[in-house]
UniProtKB/TrEMBL annotation:
<feature type="domain" description="Chemokine interleukin-8-like">
    <location>
        <begin position="22"/>
        <end position="83"/>
    </location>
</feature>
<dbReference type="Pfam" id="PF00048">
    <property type="entry name" value="IL8"/>
</dbReference>
<dbReference type="GO" id="GO:0005615">
    <property type="term" value="C:extracellular space"/>
</dbReference>
<dbReference type="GO" id="GO:0030593">
    <property type="term" value="P:neutrophil chemotaxis"/>
</dbReference>
<dbReference type="GO" id="GO:0006954">
    <property type="term" value="P:inflammatory response"/>
</dbReference>
<dbReference type="InterPro" id="IPR039809">
    <property type="entry name" value="Chemokine_b/g/d"/>
</dbReference>
<dbReference type="InterPro" id="IPR033899">
    <property type="entry name" value="CXC_Chemokine_domain"/>
</dbReference>
<dbReference type="InterPro" id="IPR001089">
    <property type="entry name" value="Chemokine_CXC"/>
</dbReference>
<dbReference type="InterPro" id="IPR001811">
    <property type="entry name" value="Chemokine_IL8-like_dom"/>
</dbReference>
<dbReference type="InterPro" id="IPR036048">
    <property type="entry name" value="Interleukin_8-like_sf"/>
</dbReference>
<keyword id="KW-0732">Signal</keyword>
<keyword id="KW-1015">Disulfide bond</keyword>
<comment type="similarity">
    <text>Belongs to the intercrine alpha (chemokine CxC) family.</text>
</comment>
<protein>
    <recommendedName>
        <fullName>C-X-C motif chemokine</fullName>
    </recommendedName>
</protein>
<comment type="function">
    <text>Chemotactic factor that mediates inflammatory response by attracting neutrophils, basophils, and T-cells to clear pathogens and protect the host from infection. Also plays an important role in neutrophil activation. Released in response to an inflammatory stimulus, exerts its effect by binding to the G-protein-coupled receptors CXCR1 and CXCR2, primarily found in neutrophils, monocytes and endothelial cells.</text>
</comment>
<keyword id="KW-0202">Cytokine</keyword>
<dbReference type="GO" id="GO:0042119">
    <property type="term" value="P:neutrophil activation"/>
</dbReference>
Length: 94
């Protein structure tokens, strides 16, 4: 009986943990040192909303580390543009 209850409630607990993490700002600190866009593997933009008043940019670097960037910084805007152009070019070649 306990096994059945655990099977029912564990997936729910995992979903609730993920939802609660997404209902707040994901970035506490932002990376301030400029770097080349070739080090970016993935890029996520989270628009501001009821969960967080700030827009957030989270990049996953080629070494696996996730870093938050300040979308107001000029160098960040430039890096994002270069990354998006590179991604678009790669998709056109496929």
């Amino acid at each position: 009986m306990k096994l059945i209850l655990n099977c029912l409630f564990l997936p729910t607990a995992a979903v609730l943990a993920r939802v609660s993490a997404e209902l707040r700002c994901q970035c506490i600190n932002t990376h301030s040192t400029p770097f080349h866009p070739k080090f970016i593997k993935e890029l996520r933009v989270i628009e501001s909303g009821p969960h967080c008043e700030n827009s957030e940019i989270i990049v996953k670097l080629v070494n696996g580390k996730e870093v938050c960037l300040d979308p107001k910084e000029k160098w960040v805007q430039k890096v994002v543009q270069i990354f998006l152009k590179r991604t678009e070019k790669q998709q056109q070649q496929q």
